[in-house]
């Protein structure tokens, strides 16, 4: 049986940064990075943005710093079908592979739209292959329906409209992202989308997509676009290892605040449900920058002794670019009771607090100072009034970051 000092499953940002970090942290021996992806590690954020908008070539952009150290062997296009914790082995096809240490970074998969005919053409977007299919379809399409108003749905609808496709976004929310971000931010996102020509059907459920692409709504209307994209969330990838002995919660692998899930086993990225020592509860995240950071920590911890494990202490956050507008958001992600908006020309900040008036989130548009201030306030559990007293006024001179790899 082949044997490695460290096996990493998944070549997304979490798996890739784990491999590099393990070696840079002094990890020794042979490392295997095994991934179902057929392409070398690439960035997902551009796929809903410049790639779909037709502003850049349909090419996979390598993850920055993903040139793996020589010590790391990479096996692409290869699915791990089982993990056997007791035997300290994974199964790759028919072949068992032994490990001393293991990092699971298998991410998530998009949820296919549940109520559609088996032969209905409902696209999803997670991988580069999905993006190639979507762009090919968009090149032929005059009209599109995007189902779902999360960040993937909003970004994709904006990009399809920029490409010149007559786009309708359908969502059960009363405004895009209103449940998560509140009325103010939702109304801005609404304006950005309609400004690009996206038609919004809000407060409406899609009841069915009939073959090939007829979208039935619960208000009795029917849409017949050339292209349908379902952006209705993801299923974390832990379920595929349900028999492994790993503890799962809603498809995520339960980890402690060192991202450790069992002796010599760590989880990182979208698949992890790690305990956060500052939030004092498990904090699941689905963000690019957090996956990079968690992978880095998992790799570092895998290279370290048991008594030298570091905690995951980052405040989760992401950037999202809808058309030409970039939002930056940091939050614990489990709701808020109070919202305060600080606005100035060409910029705004939305502050979120819980019932005790503690800052639990911040959303900024063209205000990086507040974004950084917000992360500190969330981490330190500052009161919102204290933050507002000393808030840095926004200016419209700050550069809007274009790459959404936060
Ligand atoms: C189109 C798009 C745009 C996005 N834009 C943003 C953004 O602007 N900002 C932001 O913060 N976040 C964004 N995200 C979310 C971000 O990409 C994810 O949070 C991030 O990719 C999670 O990284 P990960 O390494 O945990 O998992 P993934 O990136 O999903 O990687 C998982 C890896 O595991 C492999 N794998 C899965 N199962 C197996 C198996 N059994 N055997 C072997 N390999 C396996 C997969 O092939 C893949 O290589 C976007 C996501 C998408 C899809």
TrEMBL record:
Sequence intervals crossing the membrane: none
InterPro entries (alphabetical): FAD-oxidoreductase/Apoptosis, FAD/NAD-bd_sf, FAD/NAD-binding_dom, FAD/NAD-linked_Rdtase_dimer_sf
Cofactor: FAD
Domain of life: Bacteria
Annotated keywords: FAD, Flavoprotein, Oxidoreductase
All copies of domain FAD/NAD(P)-binding, residue ranges: 4-279
GO cellular-component term (any): cytoplasm
Gene Ontology MF term list: oxidoreductase activity, acting on NAD(P)H
Pfam family, one: Pyr_redox_2
SUPFAM superfamilies referenced in this protein's UniProt entry, alphabetically: FAD/NAD(P)-binding domain (SSF51905), FAD/NAD-linked reductases, dimerisation (C-terminal) domain (SSF55424)
The name this protein goes by in its record: NADPH-dependent 2,4-dienoyl-CoA reductase/sulfur reductase-like enzyme
